[in-house]
Amino acid sequence: MKKIILWVAVAFLAIQLIPVDRANIPVDKNNNFTDIYKTPQDVRSLMKNACYDCHSNETVYPKYAYIAPISWAVKDHINEGREYLNFSEWGTYNNDIKQNAIQKSIETVKSKQMPLPSYINYHPKANLTTSQRKILENYFLSIQPK
């Protein structure tokens, strides 16, 4: 039994050596959603707390994101979120993509699909109230490309 525990401990320590790239790409204010639309500070704060860790190049990695294998799952989730929507790259999107992204953002915030419940469990600031969700919904509606 002691050998098994020793091997598990050695394996756990060894996987800590597998690097995870947590570098954020510098944000170009000319492409950043909140800069383009001159987003009001209250809305900007809501987006930073609830959206930007997974949907921007401004991810703030929590302490648990430095422990493998959790770090792998966190990075994979962030990569997936950025592929779907990256507010830091907003200016590079065409109008069809922007319109679809805004519509999906409205729908997922309104239906409480976003932020993900698993994210909210570890990030209480992302747990949006009904009124905060309405603020985001109204803001997205106000800037929706025609």
Folded structure, characterized:
- The protein is an all-alpha fold and 146 residues long.
- Helix content is 54%, strand content 0%.
- The chain contains seven helices and no strands.
- It has helices at residues 2-15, 33-36, 41-50, 70-84, 95-110, 117-122, 130-143.
- It is elongated and about 60 Å long.
- It starts with a helix and ends with a helix.
- The mean pLDDT is 90.
State the main characteristics.
single chain; 146 residues; mainly alpha; 0% strand; elongated
Identify the overall geometry. Answer: elongated
By DSSP (H or I, 4+ residues per run), the number of helices equals: 7
Could you tell me the radius of gyration in angstroms? 18 Å
Helix proportion? 40-55%
- What structural class results from the helix and strand content? mainly alpha
Task: Report the sheet with the most strands, covering strand number, pairing sense and barrel closure.
Answer: none
Spans with pLDDT under 50 lasting ≥5 residues? none
**H/E order of the elements?**
HHHHHHH
Estimate the mean pLDDT confidence: 90
Instruction: Determine the strand fraction and express it as a percent band.
Output: under 5%
Distance between the termini: 66 Å
Please tally the β strands and state the result. 0
Summarize the topology.
Layout (H helix, E strand, L loop, with lengths): L1 H14 L17 H4 L4 H10 L19 H15 L10 H16 L6 H6 L7 H14 L3
Helix pairs in contact: 5-7
Structure at a glance:
With 146 residues, the protein is mainly alpha-helical. Helix content is 54%, strand content 0%.
